[in-house]
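Comment thread on ticket #2218

A.B. wrote:
> Attaching the input chain for the structure job we discussed in standup.
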Amino acid sequence: MEKWRLLEPEKQDDSFLKMAKEEAILNSVASGKSPPTLRFYSWKSPAVSIGYFQCAQKELFLDRCRKDGLEIFRRLTGGGAVYKCPFGEMNYSFIAPENHPLIPKDIPQSYALICGAVMKGLENLGLSPTFKPVNDILINGKKVSGNAQTRVNSCLLQHGTILIDFCGDKMAPYLRIDPEKMRQRGADSVADLVTCLNSCSGRQVLQEDVAKEVTRGFEKKFGIRFIAGELSEEEETEAHALSENKYATEKWNFWR
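C.D. wrote:
> Ran it. Output below, let me know if you need it in another format.
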């Protein structure tokens, strides 16, 4: 049975180092120095993530974000702006060579496979998720997990947010949400479109339990075994350099 690397949940790094570690891991996997890697992380304070192609000024109330001390960071993947809620979510990141025999070359198929692994984890928690192509996981018709993917340096990177608690009311001061787009989707508020594990399960779901069961879901879906590991010294060094010289810079986060 093939063995992949599992990185234990982390929440102390700032947003910029979190994103820098993803790129450092990707580069290490691409060079063959590290195996396919599954990583979990959460936030210790509120932050806002913008998609690779987005303009922060158009998507966010920047003055309010800065006044309240939110970190604003650009990720490698596309998609929309996301409010990062401490203790209200668990995030995963999965990185593997693009030509790995277990990874579909077709992007929609790879989304379905990886989201399927996440869904198995949610099923382990007693929930009944469904997949909405191309990259959403729903429970009772509402989104509980948004996912994004990119392929860089012959590697696949997919990461996603699993909502544990509802933080929709907390994002309103920071994200420019278009009311007309909401109405087109038949919604009056974010609460009409989004749900969370606590609400669906009727209990308090722990972040560490989400990570544990999603890990089991990946093992089941891919037929592999994870071995707990840590970043190599080379990955750590590269990540800190990327954080300082790229992800924490105005040039990267506000280049559009």
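A.B. wrote:
> Thanks. Noting for the ticket: The chain has ten helices and eleven strands.
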